[in-house]
Amino acid sequence: MQSAEVVGLALLLAIVVLIVAVAIRRSLLSRAGGVDLCWRPESSSRSRGWVFGQGRFSDTALVLYRSFSPLPLASRTLDREDLEIGARRSPTRGEADLLPVGSVIVRCNDGRQPFEMALSEQSLTGLQAWLESVPPALGQSRGRQARG
């Protein structure tokens, strides 16, 4: 084999391994209750800057992972106490071509900087329910009675 063939084969193998790693990570997140969503800083132009990913709810945070990253590290963590959901809107014409079909865009703030999230209507309902509910471990510390 020539060196160019070896380099080409190694590059192809690296790409395949990367795709498999991303697919496995995405599958594991989906099985763990992850939801598909996109996010971007609110200051971005209307049709640019969207990050595609999955979100996973825990008792105290919504952890965001990038879709096209093989690393198991969170891209962003949104603390439940600080996360606020604001106005919602439909995607603009440019956004509709980029975002998943049926996405709803909501303005959010996590105490650091405003941002937008695009997610399905069902995922938005789940997010709102998660924000309004109180985890049993935090129920009494917030002055609410834990449900039993």
Gyration radius over CA: 19 Å
Shape: globular
Question: What's the SSE pattern?
Answer: HEEEEEHEEHH
**Strand element count:** 7
DSSP summary: helix tally: 4
Q: Whole-Å distance between the termini?
A: 69 Å
Which architecture would the CATH scheme give at its second level?
Answer: Roll
Q: What's the mean pLDDT score?
A: 81
Total domain modules:
1
Give a quick rundown of the structure.
With 148 residues, this protein is of the alpha+beta class. The protein is built from four helices and seven strands; from the N terminus they run H-E-E-E-E-E-H-E-E-H-H.
Task: Note down, in words, how this protein is organized.
With 148 residues, the chain is of the alpha+beta class. It has one domain (3-139): PH-domain like (Roll). Helix content is 34%, strand content 30%. It is built from four helices and seven strands; from the N terminus they run αβββββαββαα. It has helices at residues 3-31, 93-98, 121-132, 136-139; strands at residues 35-41, 51-57, 61-66, 76-79, 84-89, 103-109, 114-120. The chain has a seven-stranded antiparallel sheet with strand order 4-3-2-1-7-6-5, with helices on both faces. The longest helix is centred in the N-terminal third of the chain and has 29 residues, at 3-31. It is globular and about 60 Å long. The relative contact order is 0.15. Mean pLDDT is 81; it is low at 140-148. It comes from Nakamurella endophytica.
Key words describing this protein structure:
seven-stranded antiparallel sheet; PH-domain like; 148 residues; globular; 34% helix; alpha+beta
